[in-house]
Design brief:
The complex is a heterodimer of chains A (245) and B (246).
Chain A lengths: L1 E11 L4 E12 L4 E5 L6 H8 L7 E6 L2 E2 L7 E4 L11 H5 L1 H5 L6 H11 L14 H14 L4 E5 L7 H18 L2 E6 L2 H7 L2 E5 L6 E6 L12 H16 L1
Parallel strand pairs in A: 3-8, 3-9, 6-7, 7-8
Antiparallel strand pairs in A: 1-2, 1-4, 4-5, 9-10
Helix pairs in contact in A: 4-5, 5-6
Chain B lengths: L2 H26 L7 H47 L1 H14 L8 H8 L3 H25 L3 H8 L5 H35 L8 H10 L3 H29 L4
Helix pairs in contact in B: 2-3, 2-5, 2-7, 2-8, 2-9, 4-5, 5-7, 7-9, 8-9
The chains are: A alpha/beta (245), B mainly alpha (246).
The complex binds adenosine-5'-diphosphate (ADP) and magnesium ion.
């Protein structure tokens, strides 16, 4: 479980102090998937940087299973909007980077399964620049899942993709996620994505980021979601909360 | 550029140089401009007996100079690129000394370190190290923060950040800077070899000149140029091989 208490983050620039996150309080259950939605600049990325241990200058407390965040002892899968692949490594090397850094023995069987599942098993010797955006994001997904993370953090991972590959990736992601049930925080600014992927939806206020509302999402894992009334109702509801800010 | 095009380009320039040389020699008909083929035959005749040792000395000095400059310059550049504080302290020094014509330091270096090998190496190192430092620093600064983030979230230690990101990300640029500095390094090498040594292509060429042996002198110039060319190509190939991801 992730227990967040009074999490506040300030950025210090030359002239001013920017309040990015303002006293967040939330508990996130193990094996659950939360989507966080909010307008641009409200502090969503900042929130993930804290959880992934990149940003250590915060106040309040963030505990993962009772322990302070420490990427060295926890296995954190982080997927960023720009994929975060190393251009000088092949697809295979990139996908294996997590286990390499963690000094885990690579599990060939599982990684091959993930490669096949993500449809990148025939691209393993290519370099990132030889891939499309969608393919690069599949490699980033592969890296995260092969690590078998305790916590999966995703920062608008599909927003740079075109609409068709985005929906394809959402489905693929959910598919693999179900087999793992890893605790996941998925950042998005798309109402549709929040509804499709989140069992719970957390709505952020405009900057400085505060949690406006945590919603149980009745749409989660419904078939043909996008054609249903529940989907329509929930999107109206979410949009209203977002508009009021 | 494709490798084949590069070779064609090199061959083309060689042919042009030879034609011009031949033409000048033919027009002037003076002993100070011998014919290219005469020089080539001379190289074949004297290389093993008279030139080899000088080529070895010069190559050794350039390679040692490059190696020292890399060993000192790359880590320094990395530190400056990675740690803002180090950069703040050192970059004024680097920028202040950058525009000083390094060759002008030769007398000082020789006064301090004598006429021997040390000052020759120091001169080569001084000539290329600044380029390496600045290139390495800028290469590290240009790495997008996202790349560091994904490694940090995996709990990578400093050594892993260095070997997985910093080194591969900057290697190509550093090699390019060495390749570009090579021309200057060979010129300086030549210059320093005209003093305080009896070995090296600089000595060989100046000695031939003093002995009024123009064939030997030209042979020396051709071999020295060829040596520089080979180093240039070697770095180029290393770059292609190590940075095939680009
Ligand atoms: N390194 C930084 N220095 C100063 N301000 C920053 C920095 N990073 C982000 N901010 C500010 O913090 C706020 C939140 O940013 P961010 O977390 O990136 O928002 P989001 O991901 O929701 O778009 C924004 O107002 C942004 O301008
Ligand atoms: Mg963001």
């Amino acid at each position: 479980m992730i227990a967040i208490k009074d999490l506040t983050v300030k950025y210090q620039t030359k002239n001013e102090e920017i309040l990015a996150l303002d006293r967040l309080n939330i508990n996130i259950g193990k094996g659950d998937i939360y989507t966080f939605i909010g307008p641009s600049g409200c502090g969503k990325s900042t929130f993930l940087y804290v959880l992934s241990g990149i940003l250590q200058d915060y106040s309040g407390s963030v505990l993962i299973d009772g322990q302070i965040i420490n990427p060295k002892s926890q296995r954190i899968g982080l997927i960023l909007q720009n994929y975060g692949l190393l251009p000088w490594k092949t697809v295979y090397q990139n996908a294996m980077l997590g286990v390499k850094i963690k000094n885990q023995p690579p599990v060939e069987e599982y990684s091959n399964y993930i490669f096949r599942k993500l449809g990148i098993d025939n691209l393993l010797n290519r370099y990132p620049k030889e891939l499309s955006g969608g393919q690069q994001q599949r490699v980033a997904l592969a890296r995260a899942f092969i690590l078998k993370p305790d916590l999966l953090l995703m920062d608008e991972p599909f927003s740079a993709l075109d609409a068709i590959s985005r929906e394809e990736m959402q489905e693929l992601f959910l598919n693999i996620w179900k087999e793992n049930n890893v605790t996941t925080i998925f950042i998005t600014h798309s109402v549709d994505e929040a509804l499709y992927l989140g069992r719970k939806i957390v709505v952020f206020s405009p900057s400085p980021g505060r949690i406006l509302k945590v919603i149980d999402n009745p749409c989660f894992q419904l078939d043909n979601l996008r054609y249903r009334d529940e989907y329509y109702d929930m999107s109206m509801k979410l949009r209203k909360i977002l508009d009021k800010g | 550029m494709l490798l084949k095009e590069k070779w064609q380009g090199a061959l083309y320039s060689l042919v042009v140089v030879l034609i011009l040389w031949q033409a000048v020699a033919w027009l002037l008909k003076l002993p100070i401009v011998p014919f290219p083929w005469a020089v080539c035959i001379n190289i074949a005749e004297i290389f093993a007996s008279k030139m080899e040792i000088h080529v070895l000395y010069s190559t050794g000095r350039v390679l040692a100079g490059i190696a020292i400059a890399m060993l000192l310059g790359i880590p320094l550049g990395f530190l400056m690129g990675y740690y803002e504080k180090v950069d703040k302290i050192l970059s004024p020094l680097v920028y202040f000394t950058y525009p000083v014509p390094k060759l002008a330091l030769l007398p000082i270096v020789m006064l301090l370190f004598g006429l021997g090998e040390t000052s020759k190496l120091i001169m080569i190192v001084i000539i290329i190290i600044f380029q390496i430092i600045i290139t390495a620093r800028d290469a590290v600064k240009d790495i997008p923060p996202e790349i560091f983030r994904s490694l940090k979230s995996l709990g990578a230690n400093k050594l892993q950040v260095f070997s997985e990101i910093i080194l591969p990300a900057s290697l190509a640029e550093v090699l390019t800077s060495i390749r570009l500095a090579l021309g200057t390094a060979v010129s300086v090498l030549f210059f320093t070899e005209t003093y305080g040594t009896e070995y090296g292509m600089g000595y060989f060429i100046m000695d031939a000149w003093l002995r009024v042996n123009y064939l030997d002198m030209y042979a020396g110039i051709v071999v020295l140029s060829f040596m520089g060319f080979c180093l240039f190509i070697a770095i180029d190939i290393a770059e292609k091989y190590l940075c095939s991801w680009r």
